[in-house]
Structures are given as C-alpha cells and as structure tokens.
Amino acid sequence: PLVLLLLAAAVPSGSLLRVALSKSGVGPAGLQWGRVESRLLGLTLLSGILFSLVSLVLLIALVMVSIAVSLPTAPPAGAGVWAWLASVGPTGATVFVLAIRACAGFLTWLGVRLSLAPAATVAQDRIQLLSSITLTGRGFWTIFGVVLAAAAPLLLGAGAAVALGSVRGAVAPPGPLGAG
Length: 180
What we know:
single chain, 6 helices
C-alpha cells in the first residue's frame, strides 16, 4: 500500500511541477509517468531515508539525555514513566522536555530547508536533495510561515480532537470503556 501511495503521489506532483516550471512533455490530462516522476519517487525515498536516519540519531540523543538526567536518582527497573518523572524532579523533566522540543525544532528546520527539493529536482533534471538547502537561504521564515498557514487547519483540528478527547475522558463513566 505504501508503494502504491508513493507512486500515486508522484504522478500529480510531477504534473504540477512540470506545468509550474514550464517543462515540456505533459501527458494526457497532464498525467503521465516519465523521468520527472521517477526522479520525484527517488527523491521521496531518499528524503525518507534521510529523515529516518536523522530521527534515529535524535532518538539516541534523547535516550542519552534521559539516562544522564535520571542516573543520579533512577527508580527501580520497570517502575514506569511517572516514577521516572518523579525521580528526576522538575529540573530533569524540564531538561528532557527541552531536548524533545529541540529535536522537533531541528526536524522542522530540516523539513523547511528541504521543501524546495521537488521543484529543484524537476528544474535541474536530476535529484536535488541536500543541494536544495541553499535555495531556502534567506526565505526560511517565509516558507515556514506558508507551511504553518497551510497546516493550521490540520493543527487546529488535531488540537480540538485532543481537547474533546480529554473532556470526554474526564466525564466518561467508570468501567471497561470509561476513564476509570
């Protein structure tokens, strides 16, 4: 299913970028499978590998931070997350939360800096992943603002769903389906 999704996404993306960049070779109804779509599929796979590796390194760093924060007052093994948070105290929990936010911020920065990679790939007729970082240069905050504005409905909807779930959980009756 994931492969089909990637293939299905490459065709309209290639079509839109081909038209936006005035490239020739637009197929019937603007859709086709050609070199552009193959490059976009390769770019998607390379981006996935890059983000997976960066996320893995950041996860290892978070584990190291959590071990360093909890080492002096570590709870017994298997005590659970709440026991760990209680043992590290407010300072340790703050350090851990800041480390998580720094990792999320770095992934966001990387995503914005690589956001022009598909357009660069189509324009240059070759896969442009890391070299596309220079394209966002001084326009980082503009691109970030546009991405944030485009994602705002999704973020607000997710926030509302979490809030409604919290309220529902607070007033649900006790029992196997309820909160208690």
